[in-house]
Design a protein that fits this description.
Elements (H helix, E strand, L loop, with lengths): L2 H26 L2 E7 L18 H8 L2 E7 L4 H10 L3 H4 L13 H7 L3 E7 L8 H4 L4 E5 L12 E4 L2 E4 L6 H15 L5 E6 L31 H23 L5 E7 L8 E4 L2 E4 L7 H4 E7 L8 E8 L3 H9 L13 H4 L10 E5 L10 E5 L3 E4 L4 E3 L17 H16 L6 H10 L18
């Protein structure tokens, strides 16, 4: 063989070996699907003890996977989304409602850099720029409320990769988004992919679904047929859409190597009262008490997670970025606050959290209330000194008298105070300056000006 041909043959062989090695490495990395329901608290899932709704697909994931009992997020959607996507507490990066600072790094960017195909579909609400999803690391997107705020349910209007598309023939927004998710999975079944699916359901307006007896495909806008009774139908339809994702994974033969995680973005709407473990449970969206922050968390990974396990470890919305990045072998920035619960998914002890921290401020125009606290399984301490036994008083109705505490309780209070002390100076001044610049009518960031009720 001539030297030139020998060199060419060796080059082609090396390229082939490298390509095969790359494909083997990709095959060993799990696909990742993160599904988040909107305004859907812990009490709504039957396998958690819920008694008002039917959630067979979620219950099936729990029965064949891992169900967490103590996942807490922020009480409102945008604050949770910012923490979830960046792995950082709001005190470090939250400017105002509806904004994700473009200087932040998201799990989309980290997984794209690690070689994953990335897609996002559902509710955006993180900035109106046409390129926002792609800027934050997502190859493809199908979103509601990216460039505008149109109807989301019957005859919805969506943005596909930033391009507006309106529907007017009875199409149902959540189903359109789900169709995008199924197509993305099918198109990328041969490669490791990451799909972030922040669902539109089950947020109000509470309207009929295509499975409801009073569904009207001619409904125009979000002010028609509204009633809390439709929350039951919306929950069932949300569960149905999750089932379609699982069925697609089974159909393609990739479910065993797919880590699917489901959670809620905050507590249920305050207009909804459900039955939970034999008692009424009022939705607590917007509250830093448990009814506003306690959400379902279920993980399915048939090739890794043993069936029917339950985990009582504390989980924060900041923990998802390091968990899925660790599962993918992607680098996790040192600036991340979250703690990976990948070991718990694998059945190992891991490094369970001893406490959770919350800095919550809606920052919707003039509502600058800040609620800051640290809590564990038993107690919660607020920055203003209020201290609760949340194991026995989850709604935080009776503060503990600090002057009459027993020694063990005082020790618990001191432990949580040490947590709060870590974040005393953690708020960058530039964030409040940015808020003031975008809201010049507000003069005193950090103080409550006018009480405004959240719409999302």
């Amino acid at each position: 063989m001539r030297p030139t041909f020998r060199l060419l043959a060796l080059t082609l062989l090396s390229a082939s070996v490298l390509e095969a090695a790359s494909l083997r490495a990709a095959a060993n990395r799990p696909n990742l699907i993160l599904i988040m329901a909107d305004d859907f608290g812990y009490e709504c899932v039957t396998s958690n003890g819920g008694q008002s709704y039917q959630t067979p697909n979620l219950d099936g994931l729990a029965a064949n996977g891992l169900r967490f009992e103590n996942c807490h997020v922020q009480p409102l959607c945008t604050p949770t989304r910012v923490q979830l996507m960046t792995g950082r507490y709001n005190i470090r990066n939250y400017i105002n409602f509806g904004t994700l600072p473009r200087t932040e790094t998201t799990f989309g960017q980290l997984l794209k850099k690690a070689g994953y195909a990335t897609g996002i579909c559902g509710k955006w609400q993180l900035g109106p720029e046409i390129d926002s999803p792609q800027h934050f690391g997502f190859d493809k997107s199908c979103l509601w409320q990216q460039t505008r705020r149109p109807p989301r349910y019957a005859n919805a209007d969506l943005e596909y990769n930033g391009i507006e598309k309106d529907f007017s023939h009875g199409e149902y927004g959540p189903e359109l988004v789900n169709n995008f998710a199924l197509e993305f999975i099918a198109q990328n079944r041969g490669y490791p992919f990451f799909l972030y699916y922040p669902m539109i359901l089950t947020h109000n307006p509470f309207q009929p679904t295509p499975d409801s007896p009073d569904w009207d495909p001619k409904t125009d806008g979000e002010n028609k047929q509204q009633s809390p009774k439709h929350f039951t139908d919306m929950t069932a339809y949300m569960d149905k859409l999750v089932g379609r994702i699982v069925a697609k994974l089974d159909e393609l033969g990739i479910r065993d190597n797919t880590l699917l995680i489901f959670l809620g973005d905050n507590g249920t709407n305050t207009g909804i009262t459900s039955r939970f473990k034999g008692a009424d449970y009022k939705g607590g969206k917007g509250s830093t008490a448990a009814h506003g922050t306690h959400v379902p968390l279920i993980a399915s990974w048939p090739g890794v997670i043993k069936k029917g396990r339950v985990c009582g470890d504390l989980i924060s919305s900041t923990d998802f970025l390091p968990t899925i990045c660790s599962a993918a072998g992607a680098a996790v920035p040192a600036t991340v606050d979250g703690v990976s619960f990948l070991p718990q998914l694998r059945g190992e002890v891991g490094t369970p959290r001893e406490w959770l921290y919350t800095w919550y401020s809606p920052r919707q125009k003039t509502d600058l209330t800040i609620r800051e606290c640290a809590f564990d399984h038993h107690y919660k301490l607020y920055r203003d000194g209020r201290f609760f036994d949340i194991a026995h008083d989850p709604l935080e109705r009776e503060p503990i008298n600090l002057s009459t505490m027993s020694a063990p309780v005082a020790k618990a209070s001191q432990k949580l105070q040490q947590v709060l002390d870590q974040f005393t100076n953690a708020r960058p001044a530039a964030l409040d300056e940015a808020f003031k610049k975008s809201n010049p009518e507000v003069k005193t960031p950090g103080k409550r000006k006018i009480k405004s009720k959240s719409k999302e």
